[in-house]
Amino acid sequence: MKRLSWIIWTVLTLALSGYLGYTLVAAEDKTEFIVGAPTHGHFQIELACESCHTSPFGGPEILQNACLNCHEQELEAANDSHPVKKFTDPRNADRLEILNAKDCVTCHREHQHEQTMAMGVTLPDDFCFHCHQDVAENRPSHEGMGFETCASAGCHNYHDNRALYEDFLVKHAGKPDMLSETMKLVNDNVTSYLAEHPDVKALIADDADIPTQQVSEQDQTITEHWAATVHAQVGVNCTACHNNEQDEWLPQPKLDVCSNCHQDEWTQFTESHHGMRLSDKVDISLSPMTPAMSRLPFHQEAMDKDLTCSGCHDPHTTDTKFAAVDACMSCHNDEHTNNFTQSKHFALWQQEQQGLVPEGTGVTCATCHMPKYEEGGEVRVMHNQNHNLRPNEKMIRSACMNCHSLEFSIDALADEQLIKSNFIGKPSQHIESIDMAVKRTKQ
């Protein structure tokens, strides 16, 4: 009996070892090895383990480098208020003994779902106490405030304080809710492109170079649509997207074909939650993100929709109006999205479509979540939908303050119910950040 038990134990051990070894080395699905649910920011790539765990050898620097590989540029752009160099200063050595703020994983530990809060923070929400427990001595206005409110009351963000710096608060104090002069960036990149490329000839339907044998009745309709697009205006013919490197016709071009001409937009898209599964920083090939994979509420009929460039931009119509509103609303099914059509923002968008207000006056989903910006003399659209989404104060400078005062913007973004209603009404609370900053300058 004892011998039989040993045989059974040996067989089971070998079988289990073989299964785990095969799964670890060869199988695509490594779900068995996930030690805990990943955060909201990383669950899309939870099976691309080696994107973060780049080596089985080495210390904390392995994970630190993996974090910076994706987030370093973002932190630099945000003018990070707690950069690593702050904590390499010997004068802060005593603080590092309490909280090693040089390493991202000190505050952001993955696979710790039960203790993960907003922004993927896994420390108790009063973590500012460790370094700022004496803040009330220099700032009497902070007397009695709980440290758990530092980052939750629209006052401070650990990394990105661009809309909350004291000087910025004072500069924009005392302005009305609606600014008298609003910022309206309008794309006219086609005109500038044609001016820089005078040899480019606008194409018509008869110019379409789709191979004759590929033409179907449906293709004829698509060709007519294409002839009315910006692509045809700037001389981009069918084979520019449909032919591969061997000049062979592909009925379905590769997912990254748009990056041949729109590299910046593709890079931004693959940095977003929509496109991060297609990023070249992910160590394995993943399918495009679909709403069914997400943790947010979506319409049932959209669950299997691939989130690629063509998911929002039909390449044969390039309808940016659809991409700015309908593409979002056809998938997202949350209170904020569903209330958009009842909002003043949407009313302005409708008036713009009817020609009743100047171009750029309307406010769409893209206006706030994919704001326009100027670069190199051109107006561009941010294609990383998450660039200014969390924490939402990041949206103040790039979106809200194009029309609204800083004070109104801070109050509005701190009001969760107002956000859910898609800003129907006014903020129900007032954040005293500007008042406190102004008072301090008068002391």
Supply the key terms.
flat; mainly alpha; 21 helices; about 450 residues; 2 strands
Molecular structure report:
The chain has 443 residues and is mostly helical. It has 3 domains: 137 residues, no CATH class; 68 residues, no CATH class; 153 residues, no CATH class. The chain has 21 helices and 2 strands. The chain has a two-stranded antiparallel ribbon with strand order 1-2. Strand 1 and strand 2 form a beta hairpin. The longest helix is centred in the first third of the chain and has 24 residues. The chain starts with a helix and ends with a helix. The model has no long low-confidence stretch (mean pLDDT 92).
Structural class computed from helices and strand pairing: mainly alpha
Strand order of the largest sheet: 1-2
Number of domains: 3
How does the overall form come out from the CA principal axes?
Answer: flat
How far do the termini sit from each other?
A: 88 Å
Summed up, the helix count is 21
Secondary-structure element pattern, one letter each: HHHHHHHHHHHHHHHHHEEHHHH
Strand content: under 5%
Can you count the beta strands? 2
Helicity level, as a percent range?
25-40%
In terms of per-residue confidence, which ranges show pLDDT below 50 for 5 or more consecutive residues?
Answer: none
Largest sheet: 2 strands, antiparallel
The mean pLDDT is 92
Gyration radius over CA? 26 Å
Keywords: Calcium, Electron transport, Heme, Iron, Metal-binding, Oxidoreductase, Signal, Transport
Protein name: nitrite reductase (cytochrome; ammonia-forming)
GO biological process, one term: anaerobic electron transport chain
Catalytic activity: 6 Fe(III)-[cytochrome c] + NH4(+) + 2 H2O = 6 Fe(II)-[cytochrome c] + nitrite + 8 H(+)
